[in-house]
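Batch 3, record 17
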Amino acid sequence: MAGTYQLETQAADILRELGNIGAGHAATALSELLHTPIAMRVPQVELIPQDEISSVLGGPESLVACVFLQVMGDVEGTMFFVQSMASAKQLISSIWDGEGQGDGISEIGWSALGEVGNILAANYLSALMDFTHLRMLPSVPLVAVDMAQAILSIAFQDERTEGRYALVIHTAVHHRDEQEDAHFFLFPTPSAQDVLLRALGIGGIV
Amino acid sequence: MIHHVGMADAKVARGSDALRTLGLGSCVGVTLFDAAAQVAGLAHVMLPSAPSGTEDVFKYADTAIPLLLSMVVQEGADRTRLRAKLAGGAQMFAFSKGMDLVRIGPRNVEAIYAQLDTLRIPVIAADVGGNFGRTIQIQCDTGQLWVRTVQHGEHYI
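Prediction for the assembled complex:
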């Protein structure tokens, strides 16, 4: 799919609906964990050029906290749960009182973030599995705090695929108010995109 | 003037100019320079080896480095005086045994050393590995390479 960056409207609509189903389940799970309403906005389905991967997060060097998971099974890809340091600390302190203070993130905070990513991904993927009858299993969550591009470039470093554009199902996560607190990205590999779209009854992208 | 080099891109510059690339994680910034001619080149490499017929030539170590070499020579560098400095090649996620995708950094570094060895370009400095991102900038007239990190400060190599 190198050089191709038109997404068929029908394919985009169906993937967005799929993203909605996943996000709905993930938001419910996170609301229960945090005892506070969490909203996930209607997902954007777009093809992002590799050079612009970090633009939604404030640029290549902006400091973010990220949970990364690989998706394995019938549909393969990568997932990222990314937020600013301030949002990450707020999230941690709402799970563990007293944590999330100070400059860095404590070991407990680190594992809390990983667990939140895990819960989001597992719920998101299980909703997608119920809907598509395809197997999608998350790997163990890995956590990193660093420059946005240094982390997200992994989405373009899958040697099985070549492409300057990645399909991303991008969901903004809102906590309490209208402010955008976090982002949830699913990058299916190009072959996984075909598998997904076929399972949903349409031919494929392009 | 500072020239920005994006992901999977490369540029050359000369004199008092500088070349910069942002947010290297497991990607590697490869610089070649001839201090006498005051010419430098920088490539932002993402993967070790190219699939056949790729158009994304600067994305892969094996296609990017020979091309970067010809670019700096065309700009007036003397091949025999060229030196290389590298930075990046991190493993951004700790505790990631067995996940190939997250081992890309060290493999990129190996592939780049192999290429430079084949082309007989000595590597005189490298700041590679670890589990943190880097932004780098090379000064074309001196070949001095500035490395900035979020968690481990900044320094020159």
